[in-house]
Amino acid sequence: MEVRGARTVGVRTCLEVAMSAQPDHAPVPPAPIAPTAAAQLLAQLRVSARAERWVPAFEQDWSRALEDSRHSYSLTPLHDVVRAWLARLDAAPAVDAFLASGRDDSDGVGLADALDGRR
């Protein structure tokens, strides 16, 4: 058998096999969040009908996540805040339509409970 560099002719090396293997159970990573996503989100919140309540709540969530990130050296808490608030903004028109319909909402589920079920 002739050897050339790190491979053998006609046989794959262990490194090639290991690098080409993909686990069947690998989780799908969440979509990346742009570095400017928080600023863009805050701008959207400021012009929304719920700005009076949502802007202070977002700023509080962001402050907590920033502190968590400083301690954990991870951006995950910041990404989680942006994803949760984007979900709130996306759901707002449907919530408004539901509330305007006059349907009974006494059996509702909290947003945090609903988001935890998707992870």
Explain what this protein looks like in three dimensions.
The protein contains five helices and two strands, in the order ββααααα. It is mainly alpha-helical and 119 residues long. Strands 1-2 form a two-stranded antiparallel ribbon. The chain is globular and about 65 Å long.
Present the secondary structure layout:
Blueprint: E1 3-4, E2 7-8, H1 14-20, H2 37-47, H3 51-72, H4 76-101, H5 111-118
Antiparallel strand pairs: 1-2
Q: Main beta sheet, described?
A: 2 strands, antiparallel
The secondary structure category is: mainly alpha
Question: How far from one another are the termini?
Answer: 50 Å
Number of strands: 2
- Give the percentage of residues in beta strands: under 5%
Helix content: 55-70%
Give the topology string: H per helix, E per strand: EEHHHHH
Question: Which radius of gyration do the C-alpha atoms yield?
Answer: 23 Å
Strand order of the largest sheet: 1-2
Let me know the average pLDDT.
79
User: In one word, what is the shape?
Assistant: globular
Count of runs of 4 or more consecutive helical residues: 5
Sequence stretches where pLDDT stays below 50 over 5 or more residues: none
Keywords for this entry:
single chain; about 120 residues; mainly alpha; two-stranded antiparallel ribbon; 5 helices; 2 strands; about 60% helix; globular
Short précis:
The chain has 119 residues and is mostly helical.
